[in-house]
Amino acid sequence: MGSAPGHFSDRLAESILRRRSVVCVGLDPMLERLPPELLERWRGRVPELGDEAAVAGCFSEFCRGIIEAVADAAACVKPQAAFFEQYGAPGWSALAEVVRCAHDHDLPVILDVKRGDIASTGVAYARAAFGGAPGFTAPVGGLDADAVTVSPYLGDDSLEPFVAATAEGRGVFVLTRTSNPGAATLQEQETGGRALYLHVAELVARLGAASTGRYGYSDVGAVAGATAPASLR
Amino acid sequence: MGSAPGHFSDRLAESILRRRSVVCVGLDPMLERLPPELLERWRGRVPELGDEAAVAGCFSEFCRGIIEAVADAAACVKPQAAFFEQYGAPGWSALAEVVRCAHDHDLPVILDVKRGDIASTGVAYARAAFGGAPGFTAPVGGLDADAVTVSPYLGDDSLEPFVAATAEGRGVFVLTRTSNPGAATLQEQETGGRALYLHVAELVARLGAASTGRYGYSDVGAVAGATAPASLR
After folding, report:
1. Which of A38, A101, B154, B211 has the greatest number of CB atoms lying within 10 Å of its CB?
2. Distance (Å, whole) CA B19 – CA B101
3. Do A185 and B155 touch (CB under 8 A)?
4. So what's the ipTM on this one?
5. Is A155's CB within 8 Å of B182's CB?
6. What is the pLDDT of residues B10-41, one digit of tens each?
């Protein structure tokens, strides 16, 4: 796996302390919501670039502008991969540019990808996010995110490649109790006397116990939506 | 959402009948396992293309070769997105080429992506797979897969954008009881007197009831690993 310096949780804690901010800025670009003057400029480039690459270029410029604007006020950024993936390879390039721009501003990047798969496929997803897939001459760099979100449905072994990456300075946030109404479908089902998401929370604590930085936080965290504050306790 | 002709389940059933085959060929390329002569040729192109694009080109050529070889004997193909994503934008382009090649051979494509997210993000993942994201001049095509795999942890509303795509001729397979040991972590937890995966199976049946093709199969299916044959009953 590609490595990053120190613990992810320490890099995040230091960013929080340095900037006196706990704000994480989400980067979820939607074409129809971008500023008209930006849209106008990139619309003009469709004949040259095609639709996919023009939208991707527009997303990249918009998100990099946001990063520059918030670099002093935000502790980290969280790009949402889905919005970029809609625009194919150019979208993926735009996402990579956004990650690089955040790093240029010394902002940790939590890549919201909600991946999760078994065995070698799980390893491949971790490498896509963190780098380290074999190349002909050297391992390739991947997106070089600092941390990712992952989905736990496939169980503890599916989380293992991401947890292993904590030894290389990466972080992982496991979906635990999400903010949507559908959280009731599985997450709130009672099993063994408690909601399923509490079992996931326990798993998160167990998986993260061995990887704690000097600020006392683990490199393995839980995603818990604040729409259900009672469940956060 | 981008549309495909008829029901996904009918296109798959017709491919099965026409080819007298129920074989689905997985396309999970790993650099270290590809034929030496192919590796040698693409290794020579690293100076010109860089490592990522050389591996991606190698994957594309290998998978297209497999598709040509199995086109008469296989009912469908299932590319695994993770292996391509490791190689960034060139990897994504290679995946798109593989999907196009399968379609050139009239083979339905089940894209193994195991996505799942809420609200607009879920819609974006569906559009990445099936097309239909807004462009400046027209919706873009996405990967144009015939069906995708999705993860159910976020609940019924997270599956909705994929289920909605069945009206546009697409299919969806929901992770239900997977083949790995970690299936015990959540999927086999007992809730309401039965294993959690049986609740997912019931959800799959409910979500798919409204979208059944003329061969009697739904466009919404379940992923059930054959490593636990007793659980398949």
Report:
1. B154
2. 18
3. yes
4. 0.97
5. yes
6. 999 999 999 999 999 999 999 999 999 999 99
